[in-house]
Amino acid sequence: MAQQAVVETDAAGNRQVKRVAAKKVVPGDEVIYRIDFENTGAEVAEHIVIRNPVPEHTRYKAGSAAGMETEISYSIDGGNHFDSPENLTVIEADGTTRPAAANEYTTIRWHYTRGLQPGEKSSVEYAVVIQ
User: Fold this and answer.
1) pTM of the predicted model as reported, rounded to 2 decimal places
2) How many degrees, rounded to 5, is the angle at CA 8 between CA 123 and CA 127?
3) Of 85, 81, 41, nearest to 62 (Cα)?
4) Average pLDDT over the chain, rounded to an integer
5) pLDDT tens, residue by residue, 37-52
6) DSSP helix/strand/coil, 97
7) Which of 38, 58, 87, 101 could join 121 via S-S bond, C-beta 3.0 to 4.6 A?
8) How far is CA 107 from CA 8, 59, 96, 103, 122, in A?
């Protein structure tokens, strides 16, 4: 599900952020992707891994990936290798290396750290900025 964060102000001047379905987005807009999952089986689901690419013409918003009871890792090579942000490096043309920037992430991976009981639901999410 793709959503946008919209700031609304009530008559008293109080500001509240609400999420609404993303219908029309333009460069600079932030879009939040939420991936819902459910165990529809009769047994505990173990070793759940969710991988989602950062869509083309967007850039990942640093620090936005979330998911209860998950370990989150990132890829800068289209999902071939995943690691924590501090371990991701880019090799420059001259052979030097530098830490990868969040806007270079190509894929996000969530590893659910426990079994999901039959009928149980959960979700993960992340945000991108439209380029």
Assistant:
1) 0.84
2) 35
3) 85
4) 92
5) 999 999 999 999 999 9
6) strand
7) 38
8) 32, 11, 23, 11, 20
